[in-house]
Write a structure and sequence with these properties.
The structure holds 2 protein chains of 2 kinds. Helix content of chain A is 42%, strand content 15%. By secondary structure, chain A is of the alpha+beta class. In chain A, the strands form 2 sheets. Chain A has a 3-stranded mixed sheet with strand order 3-4-5. In chain A, strand 1 (113-115) and strand 2 form a beta hairpin. By secondary structure, chain B is an alpha+beta fold. Classes of the chains: A alpha+beta, B alpha+beta. The interface between A and B is medium-sized, with 33 and 30 residues. Strand 2 (123-126) of chain A pairs parallel with strand 4 of chain B.
């Protein structure tokens, strides 16, 4: 993931970077994962040393690392043969740390509380968790990189059972920015993204999505994925041409 | 100790006990990866295990990820549960299973004093 390499807050972040900034920016303008990565890589940065926000983020990271290591050791001691013993130990610990860090990031920036299930249910999901699921759904489409994803109630006044003060319970609108390769036609890829997110909202979450706004924020230069040698079910051949010989870019509706 | 103070201490114990019972019930539900590791609780735990006195009062929170309060009018317990769910389970289904498990656990728990519970479940992450 390309990050802003110069110190200080970026002047004109492009949409893809802004997506991450939306979710993981410290009040000083620094990207939280960048601060963590730099610390782990031993990068020395005068800003980080002096900035109270960065310093706090690193303090939390160190304490969290201690907790995870402690838990890992305790688990492997108790187990004897569990992760943490043998050569698989380091990988397992890193994987565990990565997963815990993932959750910690959500903790720091959870966003809105959004409804799951029926109107009168008391089930919720934080915006950051739902956004992560929707971004993953969009990125399952070849040639698509998801950026900023925000989710908001369609009707802010829709009350839940809890009445005034409780978050609204109605359907939501998803706003997502994506960067796509030129092989896509814009309407097709927007439709695909919309379909995937709506499906994920139902199958993975149980959230009612009334609308999905897709912003094409950038064109990717990346080479297209290698197509297989066999023509696919739609009769498209290996060069990405459809049965009539037109360049399709990808197969519509193919859940690759 | 006045009668009022005694009652408050008793209520605190009930709350802690209920939070613990709710947390155990939640962790037993398939699809729950773990209770939200609230950062403050995580750090307190880290500080304790490192032998550091944080010099900071306040309840530990019986279990991170569960908040218990006693409502009056109507008299009932409000139990807020924060979970990190596992991928491969539909999030709303996990919340429903958690609610059922916690409601049943509260019914069986003497500390509930026979009062019903309103259980709110929030998914704070998916791993």
């Amino acid at each position: 993931m390309a990050m802003n390499q110069t110190p200080g807050p970026p002047d004109e972040p492009d949409e893809a970077v802004e997506a991450v900034l939306d979710d993981e920016r410290l009040p000083c303008g620094r990207l939280l994962p960048q601060v963590w990565d730099d610390w782990e890589a031993g990068v020395v940065d005068p800003h980080t040393r002096e900035c109270p926000h960065c310093a706090a983020a690193l303090r939390d990271l160190e304490m969290l690392g201690d907790v995870v290591r402690h838990a890992q050791d305790a688990a492997s001691e108790a187990d004897g043969t569990g992760p943490g013993t043998g050569s698989g130990g380091v990988d397992a610990a890193s994987a565990l740390t990565a997963r815990v860090m993932d959750v910690v990031r959500l903790e720091l920036r959870p966003g809105r509380t959004l409804p799951l299930g029926e109107r009168d249910e008391d089930a919720w999901i934080v915006e950051a968790a739902a956004a992560k699921a929707f971004r993953a759904a969009a990125e399952a489409i070849p040639g698509v990189r998801a950026g900023s994803c925000r989710i908001a109630p369609l009707d802010p006044a829709a009350p839940g059972e809890n009445g005034a003060g409780a978050p609204p319970r109605g359907p939501v609108r998803v706003h997502i920015g994506v960067a796509v390769t030129l092989a896509w036609t814009l309407r097709d890829v927007a439709d695909q993204v919309r379909a995937r997110i709506t499906a994920a909202a139902d199958s993975a979450l149980g959230m009612e999505v009334a609308a999905v706004d897709v912003r094409i924020t950038d064109i990717l230069d990346e080479p297209w994925d290698e197509p297989s040698d066999e023509p696919d079910a739609a009769g498209n051949d290996a060069a990405g041409n459809d049965a009539a010989g037109h360049d399709r870019g990808t197969t519509d509706g193919d859940p690759s | 100790m006045t009668h009022h103070e005694t009652r408050d201490h008793g209520r605190d114990r009930d709350r802690d006990r209920l939070a613990s019972v709710a947390a155990d019930a939640t962790l037993g539900v398939p699809g729950v990866a773990f209770l939200r590791p609230g950062l403050t609780q995580l750090l307190r735990a880290a500080a304790r295990s490192a032998g550091v006195r944080r010099g900071h009062a306040g309840t530990d929170g019986a279990a991170s990820g569960v908040g218990v309060a006693l409502d009056t009018g109507p008299d009932r317990w409000t139990i807020d549960v924060y979970i990190v769910a596992s991928r491969g389970h539909r999030a709303v289904d996990v919340t429903r299973a958690v609610r059922t498990a916690v409601e049943e656990a509260v019914l069986r728990c003497p500390s509930a004093d026979g009062l019903p519970a309103r259980v709110s479940v929030t998914v704070s992450g998916v791993v």
